[in-house]
Amino acid sequence: MTKKLIKSGVYDSFTTFRVFEVNNRNNFVKALKKLIKSNLIISGETRYENEGSIDFNNQFMKLRERRLKLFRESKEKGKLQPREIRGDIFQTKDKPEVTIKPIQNGIAIDAENNLIDNLVASQEYELGRIANLYNYEKKYTGFNSHDFKNVFLLYPCKAYIGEKVLYISFFLMIYKNGLATLNSKINIDGRDLNELSDSIYDLSLENVFLPEFLFSESSNNNYKKKGRCNSLREVEGVYKKYLGDLFNTNNFSMPFNFITLIDYKNRPDECFSEDNISFNRSLYNLLNAPVSEFTEKHDKPVREFIKTRYFETSYFHRYYGNNNRIISVYTKRIKDEFNSIYPNGEGGELADSHIYLVSLTGVINVIEALLFRKFINDNYVLSNLNTKTSMSQLLKLKIKSKNDSLLDLKRYYYSYGSLTELQEFMHYKCEDYTKSAIANQWSREIEDLIKLKREQFVSTLSILGPIITIILTLILSFPTIKQISEEIGVEQNSIFIYIIFNTAFIFLLLIVFVKQFIELFLRLSVILSNLAKKLRAIFKKLKK
Hints:
By secondary structure, the chain is an alpha+beta fold. It contains 17 helices and 16 strands. Helix 6 (277-287) packs across helix 7, helix 10 packs parallel to helix 14 (436-475) and helix 15 (478-487) crosses helix 16 (494-512). The chain crosses the membrane at residues 457-475, 495-514. Keywords: Membrane, Transmembrane, Transmembrane helix.
């Protein structure tokens, strides 16, 4: 099979999970503190009112210094670089340059480091990505991102493809509705489009290096080789295991995939055309991966499929969507547009990075919405419910589902019309991922079941009302029993007869109306439990 190489492209994978329940407004802050105390994150934010800055935290800065020290020591001794830094650090000058500048109260000494650590440099770019996403999100939605979420940069993964070193970045977004999203990002320059399709985006890797604390009992953040870890999904599994242990969960949603193709085989020249069958087939295979020689389609159905799957933002850019993937593609014209901004080539290698960032920021909110919908629907539809489930449990599930959805709805209240259109388009095209139609049907069934149970409860009360009245009458009717006992000459056994008669009657009622009594008991227990919680909250406030 002819290779269809990607000269410039990026692949992002997203998965959602729950980190806390929204039953206490302090849970969000507690989750953030737990994450900050862990070893996992390398970014930190400093905020002043509505402004702020993002930089590396202290533990990552210390790791950087240790890595540079290892490099200098190995070079001074003429030894091979340790495996954990091999291929990462390069010397740009023979000696560091020292600059002395006069300032108001004396002099300032600046020492320019003559070493570059590519692992650290790759993450410096990712800090900028977080800042840009914050800014663009406010522009697109009208809200500050911090009103809804916090974004953290995690320790990256270092891996090899042959002699080529890859740095896989990881991000964690924690939302105020209790959900979180793990995002991995990998450069796919030099990869084959067919490989992406055949593997369903589970890219092969070699010699994976991760911080030691991620896969061992050690708290050390030095990089060590991770055995039996040969693909992107297996690397993601290591991060998910750590996060699952940290937040006590193993419920992660099916990954959602986002690919940005900037320079690639069969790329259109000026504008897109439905008649470019080579381009159409490449997109078709990616959108329907895995596609084999046994499932390939003829040109016509491929063309018809592609015609219905894109959202065009300009004549040189489109988003294609299907199932659990969105693919962002550009024509060759994008480079001309970028060069018009930087006519003398000042953009240089930043061009592709900038194009990717624009591509991501245009669709990140839509991806988050799809992830939310998938997670909510899965936990709603796949919950262990049946006709025997109590009404209180059904109502609790409905309230939880609505609470998860409210944040997403609020985020798009002030958004641009184009963003709303894109979101609606992708929700429709990615229905096979979110399963919203099935979830909506399930919701209607639950509402019908709640209605029936409510009617059953009312009916139960109407039946039990007279029964309870009879029981109370019996309990209070000892004089009647005593009088009858006197007339039949068994006055000395009147108390015994009274107890036996009432016990037998109550036992008979329990057998006949057992379901109604259980439903009433459960309902009353929920009411009393909620009342007790409110009373405890009141007492706590009074103590303060």
